[in-house]
């Protein structure tokens, strides 16, 4: 193909603030803000678990039919260029951000400030912002994006400052739950190309940006880890024609598949294929792989590149104490016959640190029942039914039709309890390997609930309530026994999660059930005109939970400020790449 067909590098459209941004709010009322600040997602809420499971199943079964990436071949295919006035560039990276308002806005507020003073470093606001995936939770919809993502970022930076920063976004699995419809509406637009004070720069769900001094930023969309579509590969084939052996690449991907490949060997295959077939033939080097998806900060270092996970933009904290100390990338047991040569990477930094992460795990006992009242109610309901079934058999009093309807047959309840606990340990649809520990822990968890139900039944039969005329025993069980056993059984679940987490099982549920909003993180990077890349991993130990209207009424000032200051620090010393 001749050079005449190489896509030209496109200027970034300027951000034009809308009417809402121009009018500053007079209170924190949602009608004034233009969005409703949301509470953190209660991840163990029964209806949310069911709806998320259904969405995940639909995405697995019909993802190919909902895939809009093939249609993006008709979209623009420009390569964008970003550079600061001094020939260098400040670049921010944030991921997993659209959750509860306090955590999301705490990070957005710091990103939007004119300058951050962090441990002696003066870090000006970045000219380019990259959102690394999962811009909204629990599932993609335009209203959820407005309340959980765009609204908070609008409040943090209402209009574009003089440097007119630009935003690029990578879709994560939660962005894909509606087939990418809402994501494309927000980040890939032909008009109103602004997201708060940031101009939206991309023309597809993936992008290529030429940075100063031979650096490139490439953002991939692999549809929740499935594959890279042909139009995307064709687009990056054209991008690769601009790369040279002196080019250095920052690759932003939706998930840290280098970590997930330790349990799921094929997870890294699509990234390896991209590097091996698109970038490697040009002689360019991928010096930095960055991702979100796991809600913490972690850095692996190897002979040729850095692997950084930074998913601390707002979602619940994910632990770091179970991370592998060493990775083989790509894994030796991948099924790909043409995989790149395996290299070893060592875990050199994590935030929060290992001890603090482990201490967070013990908070499950206090946080589980109160952060997830619906889950506690579900446990109480199931245990009440199990107790009535056991009591009916023990007392041999299941006689009337009404009692039979409410006293579910004991065998059915036992089977449901044991299977539910086993599948909770490792759902059939979950990726990765199923080990013996999943079955042992899952069945053990189920047996613990059966034992609790037996003890509860014995205690209930000692009370005179069971001897009341029917249906008063069932009413009393729902009103008295249900709430008590719900709270007790939630502690059994908490103990199971803590024990299982020590064996690498249900680690996500151990922390999702707590909804920890603190220990957030993002990256601020600097590319100097001489080509030196410095990465500043910013950590936020405590997010703010109290906000007030900003007395500064200048157009670019954040609408809300924390009543007590946010204190960013470095998660580790700056990382320098040349």
UniProtKB/TrEMBL annotation:
Signal peptide: none annotated. The keyword Transmembrane helix applies. Gene3D superfamilies: 3.60.21.10. PANTHER family: CALCINEURIN-LIKE METALLO-PHOSPHOESTERASE SUPERFAMILY PROTEIN. InterPro entries: Metallo-depent_PP-like. Residues 16-29 have a biased composition (Basic and acidic residues). Keywords: Membrane, Transmembrane, Transmembrane helix. It comes from Micromonospora sicca. The lineage of its organism: Bacteria, Bacillati, Actinomycetota, Actinomycetes, Micromonosporales. Residues 1-31 are annotated as: Disordered. The chain crosses the membrane at residues 43-66, 375-393, 405-427, 439-461, 473-499. This is Metallophosphoesterase.
């Amino acid at each position: 193909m001749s050079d005449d067909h190489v896509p030209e590098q496109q200027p970034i459209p300027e951000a034009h603030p809308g009417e809402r941004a121009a009018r500053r709010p007079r209170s924190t009322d949602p009608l004034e803000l233009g969005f409703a600040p949301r509470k953190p997602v209660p991840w163990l809420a029964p209806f949310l678990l069911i709806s998320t499971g259904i969405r995940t199943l639909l995405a697995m079964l019909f993802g190919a039919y909902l895939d809009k990436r093939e249609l993006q071949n008709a979209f623009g295919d420009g390569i964008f260029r970003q550079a600061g006035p001094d020939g260098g560039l400040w670049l921010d990276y944030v991921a997993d951000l659209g959750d509860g308002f306090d955590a999301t806005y705490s990070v957005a507020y710091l990103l939007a400030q004119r300058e951050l003073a962090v441990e002696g470093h003066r870090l000006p606001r970045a000219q380019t912002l990259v959102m690394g995936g999962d811009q909204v939770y629990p599932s993609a919809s335009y209203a959820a994006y407005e309340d959980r993502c765009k609204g908070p970022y609008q409040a943090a930076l209402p209009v574009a400052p003089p440097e007119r920063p630009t935003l690029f976004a990578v879709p994560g699995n939660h962005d894909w739950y509606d087939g990418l419809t809402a994501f494309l509406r927000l980040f890939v637009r032909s008009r109103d190309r602004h997201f708060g004070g940031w101009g939206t720069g991309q023309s597809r769900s993936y992008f290529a940006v030429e940075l100063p001094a031979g650096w490139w930023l490439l953002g991939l969309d692999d549809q929740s880890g499935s594959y890279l579509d042909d139009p995307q590969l064709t687009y990056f084939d054209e991008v690769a024609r601009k790369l040279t052996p002196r080019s250095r690449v920052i690759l932003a991907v939706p998930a840290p598949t280098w970590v997930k490949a330790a349990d799921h060997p094929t997870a890294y295959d699509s990234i390896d294929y991209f590097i091996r077939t698109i970038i490697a033939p040009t002689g360019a080097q991928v010096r930095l792989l960055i991702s979100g998806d796991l809600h913490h900060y972690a850095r692996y270092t190897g002979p040729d590149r850095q692997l950084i996970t930074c998913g601390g933009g707002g979602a619940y904290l994910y632990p770091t104490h179970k991370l592998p100390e060493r990775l083989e990338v790509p894994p030796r047991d991948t099924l790909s016959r043409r995989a790149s040569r395996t290299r070893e990477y060592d875990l050199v930094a994590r935030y929060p640190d290992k001890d603090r992460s482990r201490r967070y795990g013990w908070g499950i006992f206090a946080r589980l029942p109160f952060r997830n009242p619906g889950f506690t109610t579900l446990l109480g309901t199931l245990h009440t039914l199990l107790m009535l079934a056991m009591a009916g058999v023990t007392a041999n009093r299941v006689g009337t039709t009404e009692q039979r309807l409410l006293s579910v047959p004991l065998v059915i309840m036992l089977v449901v309890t044991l299977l539910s606990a086993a599948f909770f340990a490792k759902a059939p649809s979950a990726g990765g390997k199923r080990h013996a520990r999943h079955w042992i822990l899952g069945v053990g968890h189920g047996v613990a609930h059966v034992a609790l139900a037996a003890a509860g039944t014995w205690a209930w039969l000692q009370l005179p309530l069971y001897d009341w005329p029917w249906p008063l025993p069932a009413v009393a069980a729902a009103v008295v026994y249900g709430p008590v056993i719900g709270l007790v059984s939630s502690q059994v679940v908490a103990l199971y999660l803590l024990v299982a987490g020590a064996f690498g099982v249900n680690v996500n549920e151990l922390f999702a059930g707590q909804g920890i909003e603190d220990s957030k993180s993002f990256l601020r990077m600097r590319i100097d005109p001489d080509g030196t890349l410095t990465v500043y991993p910013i950590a936020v130990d405590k997010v703010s939970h109290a906000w007030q209207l900003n007395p500064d009424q200048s157009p670019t000032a954040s609408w809300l400020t924390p009543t007590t200051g946010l204190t960013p620090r470095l998660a580790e010393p700056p990382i320098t790449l040349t």
